[in-house]
Amino acid sequence: MPNRMIQLIKDMVKGFLDIKESVGNVSGKRKVSKETYDLIKQFEGYSEKAYSDVVGVWTIGYGNTYYKDGSKVREGDTITKAEAEELFQHVVDDFAQKINVLIKKDVNDCEFGALVSLSYNIGVGAFKKSTLLRKVNGSPDDPSIGLEFLKWVKAGGKTVNGLVKRRNKEAEFYFNKNCS
Questions:
Q1: The domain 31-44+81-174 is classified under which CATH number: 3.40.50.10190, 3.40.50.720, 3.40.50.1820, 1.10.530.40?
Q2: pLDDT value for 156
Q3: What residues contact 46, with CB distance under 8 A and at least 6 apart?
Q4: Of 17, 42, 62, 82, which has fewest CB within 10 angstroms of its CB?
Q5: Phi, psi angles (nearest 5°) of residue 5
Q6: What is the pLDDT of residues 103-114, one digit of tens each?
Q7: Of 35, 44, 170, 172, which one is the catalytic site residue?
Q8: How many angstroms separate the CA atoms of 7 and 9, rounded?
Q9: What is the pTM of this model?
């Protein structure tokens, strides 16, 4: 029995170290800046009550479509400002970790923030398949990356002015020369 217990503890520690190393490599490279949180919030806005977005997805808080436990936002749901802030930070940080894994080149805080903002809006799956990501991984300084942001301005097959504004702002943020 003691040998099994020791092996179990060793396995748990090894698993923890593997997870820590994996997360450390992801979150240790790039962190979400306050400016990135502000950029996303600027376009998402705050809603205390769940609403159906442009394509019919139930959304609450700062553009969240699901909660920490993975359950989807539903019609009739409500959230306090404090709960929305906590959920927003959790979800943005989750997106950042997923985006971190996909970016193979060194990018600065603004470049990373713009990519997190985009993926927060279009989803990690769409971002993963995008030409924008391919270009970032080829050469993060490629000026044509700005045009790639503008390919993501449709919802339900129609160009949405708010998305045009958001993509222009994200592209501007990506190429911000005053960023570390």
A1: 1.10.530.40
A2: 86
A3: 61, 62, 81, 84
A4: 82
A5: -65, -45
A6: 999 999 999 999
A7: 44
A8: 5
A9: 0.81
